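Mods, move this if it's the wrong board.
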Amino acid sequence: MSEIDKKHAELGGEKGFLGKPETEERVAPDQVGKFRHFQGGSIYWTPQTGAHEVHGLIRNKWAQLGWERSFLGYPKTDESPSPVGNGKYNQFQGGTILWFPPSKEAFEVHGAIRSKWGQLGWEGFLGFPVTDELTTPDGIGRFNHFQNGSIYWKPSISAHEVHGLIRKYWAAHGWETNPELGYPISDELPTSQAGKNRYGDFENGVVFWKHGTSAAKALEKSTLGNASKSVHEVLAEISNIVVPMLTSNDKIYIRNAPFLVEVTDYSFDGTSVHNRRYKVHTDLGIDITDPMPDPTVNLDLWIEISYDRSAKIVQAFLTQWSVHVHVPFPTSVGLKVSTVVDQFRAQLDPMLWKPNDVAKVPDGVNILSVKAMPNGDLNVYMEPLV
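Not the wrong board. Structure tokens:
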């Protein structure tokens, strides 16, 4: 008796819900698994997963997606009852298909969106999926809608949930296609540890909900105490940090002041989302006692500005650097490019991810987000005082 026959017998044989076989046991197209179709469903087997049945609307969805040849692969469980809502599910190698009454369709969830959904308590928080994972209009992101909210994913920010009145506002204003907001870069969060107000952080803005009110709203950047900075002001702050660091060696001098090359996208390190980074370029010279022209250095620095909420300090970090050195030939001092690069490495490597305090936030002000904008401005969003 094969493993598929054993599973069929375990489920009641021909008198069970699967009923009589409709096909012989066959080898799957991948030449690894085997399957058999029955009146009420199918049983699939592989050496890795064992034999499991799939039937009803869950089987219909799996078939629509391409059976075991799809991204879901083979079933890893029989159809099982959900802990909530009288729903049903099958786990597959690449994800899960779920169904809940009275829906006439089952839906799949997989990948980073499924992982986020699991972290949030599976169907206990957001409920069951009401769509499969779909591609966003820009062709970059992915999303699932659930009974009580949505999860959106983008490579640079991973997956985040949005729900309730914050989601309602976001949906009414264009979802992620609205350039004033973009994708969520956080789950919905409390504005403070003991507070009841909530906010959602998005790529280009913040949506805030005051407890007890009937609607959320997008916050304007804060102008209190010149909190938000223009790109020119940000560059001045960066120069105040970078220039003294580079000219601490009295042989190095600035040929061209630091200027902005680009603002990078957000980045996800597997745990948290990092702010957009400023790529800053500067040209240096090395003063040598030689009649030939001085060696020149082209230096690129990537600077991230973030907010430490616990310490209430805005900080800047050097996250990466690269250097190109040109030494005129010949030079009487015999200076080598590798020697110069090693000197910069000795100076800059210890500075990587070392915090440089930019501003201390005064008491009574609750900063929700400090956001580097695509144009280089630094926008600060604070919880409304009233």
